[in-house]
Amino acid sequence: MIETRYLTKTYGKLTALKELNLTIDQGDIYGFIGPNGAGKTTTIRILATLLRPTSGQAFVCGLSVNGQAREIRRKIGYVPDEFGTYEDMTVTEYLEFFGALYGIPPKERKTVIQGVLDLTDLNFKEHAQVDSLSRGMRQRLALSRVLLHDPQVLLLDEPASGLDPRARIEIRELLKELRNMGKTILISSHILSELRELCNKVGIIEQGSLLFSGPLSEAIARVRKGDVVRVRLREGSEGAAALLAEHDFVNAAQLDEEGFVEVRLREQIDDYTFVPEFLVSKGYKILELREEDVDLEDAFMKLTRGQVS
What distance lies between CA 289 and its chain's CA centroid? Predict the structure, then answer.
């Protein structure tokens, strides 16, 4: 659905994007993450046909951003990070206006608008003034607008930025529903914990260069240096650490600040059940056993260096 080939964007001597290559398949929710100034918004604006690339190619639904912008706009929904208000319009009038721009026939428009209001849970605000809405409701209205023409691809630039926790949860649930409807979604965000719940693939970009693109599980595996198991014992932790350090399946074992024995397995070992079995066989009593949780935040911090273009 989305493909870029050596996509590059420069502004004078500044390189905002450098030979970006990524592929997003139909039905993917692709989380696009990176430091501020990394090139996320530039990429999304090129895909939305609002910016022309300096060189390289970008395709959306098989159409090139170079020469087929009008056709692409019929197939995408773009929500920027800042939502402009229309002070003299109600929610329904706002959607009527954009429905006309999208070419939806007047006889069908009312049904379509009611459908997107139901989907985004905004029907109770249909007669409210747009500028009276909270930021969370405005974000839902922005999604309502881009759903009017039933686009195949959604390009969302920081859709949860500045929202309170409840509004973020509501947006997240809405995006899950859109995923279930088969939409292909590219979403940039700084809220990495929510991307992990939503996305099946991620791209990590820094200083205009793509550092990683692929399944979320692969990103996490890339920064995991062997599985780590933490064990709390009733007593004898130091002796247990020394014994485990000599085990053939263990790379290192030591006490951590919380009193756990931290056991780092050798890279080829993916089953840690031998650890409790070994300790019990040596007479130790186990109080707690934990597997180290490596998440998207860990992957982001280890794969990036905090640089910007």
Answer: 31
